[in-house]
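lol so apparently i was supposed to do this last week
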Amino acid sequence: MIKVLFVCLGNICRSPLAEAIFNHKIQALGLSRKFKSDSAGTSDYHIGELPDERTIQCAQRKGLKINHRGRQVNRTDFRDFDYIIAMDESNLTNLESLKEKFNFPEKEVYLMRDFVTGWEGMPVPDPYYGGEEGFDEIYHILDASIESFLRKIKEVHQLYV
Ligand code: 4NP
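anyway here it is w/ 4-nitrophenyl phosphate bound
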């Protein structure tokens, strides 16, 4: 089983949407049994909460199922997940500190847009303080990034579909 964790700040906008897109894609590929995915936030701001209403609306517009409660990244995540993927540089920096603190210095953490050639180093922008259009923007960014991520891991793990 390949385990993938998407991480943002609040775990109510970007990372739950990323998880929903990822699940939709692996289901379409018939690969659901090969993967486990989840999402988490670096902050404790929205623990136990449903995704932001705008995230839910966006997911519904795109025909995605979204079913998540906010939670904070914890020590066992570094042990359990094969791919821990940050949405922006700030999340990445926080994850780098946490892996030292939790004593997983060897664990590699990834930046979501680094999987797309030409998008290296770019953020999935935080849509929280913006309008609804920001959610459609991150949907498109996430869709392309996850498509590239899946292409890469299918190759790495030799999953032929
Ligand atoms: P997310 O967006 O990190 O994509 O879930 C945010 C959600 C909440 C806050 C910031 C960003 N907040 O400050 O509460």
